[in-house]
Design goal:
Belongs to the HypE family. The chain is α+β, with helices and mostly antiparallel strands. The chain has 2 domains: about 120 residues, PurM-like, N-terminal domain (60s Ribosomal Protein L30, Chain: A); about 180 residues, Phosphoribosyl-aminoimidazole Synthetase, Chain A, domain 2 (Alpha-Beta Complex), CATH 3.90.650.10. It is built from 10 helices and 12 strands. It has a 7-stranded mixed sheet. A 5-stranded mixed sheet has the order 1-2-5-3-4. Helix 2 runs parallel beside helix 3 and helix 4 packs across helix 9.
Length: about 325
């Protein structure tokens, strides 16, 4: 009898997704569906239209902020500017009108902050969800000569990381598990952890635009579900390069280390919105670190791309292969 293979929570496994995507017939898109790409692109003369779609499923708190930032990050990582938003909002049975009004207000506030126009979408009360699920499709634009898809990474490129890893995951855990953590950590630590959503924040728009305007960037990638580890593997697969990263150089904030140690989570595989991976030639990478620092943004060169395949962490003179797996947050938030 054939054994039934059940999938775990989180993204579809890359091997399965790769097989599914290979069956999709290509058309005239500049960039179609592919592992590791943050968005799709369609070219109109010298202007690229960038399309991305992401849901918010791990939390029902601050959905508007999460929704706008996560989708806008994909556009920014491709070298674009977010422009238009289409929404689908699914509310569980029993949702109160004030909750709907509050979410609409939050989405509108975040959209206005980013100068994104809401075009429309779909809303529904349904028995099929037990918490609010928000799905957003964001459309952006970029000059053709400024696009930075993941596949454009080249051997010899330095890997630059902005801010620290697992910012989104840390904020989500402290917000979702606040009651449980109250007896474990001080209120000061919990307050800071919850505030990671705002400071350092989960948006990469500022650093992506600074890099795009001031440096020769070959590629950028927005680490999200599966953490920085999964994102590095995606760069390798999309660009056909070997990725080597010095693990000790990856910056991590104290609150992230504390909460990951408590729940026995690997921060390298934890929700990572808030940091950006950029691939640049050696001289440009050094220039980028300087410019970002001048703008108050931490930037660290953590590794490089070489000819070959696969992604690896280098630690204490040993190589550890990066293997895609479910995001660590699925261990504690179902």
């Amino acid at each position: 009898m054939r054994k039934i293979k059940r999938l775990k929570n989180g993204k579809l496994p890359n091997p399965l997704l790769s097989k599914l995507l290979k069956k999709i017939k290509g058309g005239n898109a500049l960039l179609g569906p592919a592992i590791g790409e943050d968005a799709a692109m369609v070219l109109s003369k010298d202007l690229a239209f960038i399309f991305t779609l992401d849901p918010i499923t791990f939390t029902d708190k601050d959905i508007g902020r999460y929704l706008l930032n996560v989708n806008a990050n994909d556009i920014a990582a491709c070298g674009g500017i977010p422009k238009y938003l289409i929404l689908s909002l699914l509310f569980p049975k029993g949702t109160e009108e004030k909750q709907v009004r509050s979410l609409f207000s939050e989405i509108q506030k975040e959209s206005e902050k980013m100068k994104v126009e809401i075009l429309g979408g779909h809303t529904e009360i349904t028995n099929q969800v037990n918490r609010t699920v928000a799905i957003g499709m964001l459309i952006g634009t970029a000059r053709k000569d400024k696009i930075t898809p993941t596949r454009n990474a080249k051997p010899g490129d330095k890997i630059l990381l902005t801010k620290e890893i697992a910012i989104e995951g840390t904020a989500t855990i402290f917000r979702e598990k606040e009651k449980n953590l109250g007896s474990i950590f001080s209120q000061e630590i919990i307050k800071r952890g919850k505030n990671f959503l705002i400071d350092p924040g989960i948006s990469i728009l500022k650093e992506a635009q600074i890099l795009n305007q001031n440096c020769k960037v070959n590629a950028m990638h927005d680490p999200t579900e599966g953490g920085i580890a999964t994102a590095l593997g995606e760069i390798s697969q999309a660009a056909g390069v070997k990725i080597l990263v010095e693990k000790e150089k990856i910056p991590i904030i104290k609150e992230t280390s504390l909460v990951c140690d408590y729940y026995r989570l690997d921060p390298l595989y934890l929700l990572a919105s808030g940091c950006l991976l950029a691939m640049l030639p050696r001289k440009e990478a050094k220039k980028a670190v300087k410019i970002l620092k001048e703008n108050g943004i931490l930037a660290t060169i953590i590794g490089e791309a070489k000819k070959g395949k696969g992604a690896w962490f280098w630690q204490k003179n040993k190589l550890r292969k990066i293997v895609p797996r479910a995001d660590e947050i699925t261990k504690i938030i179902k």
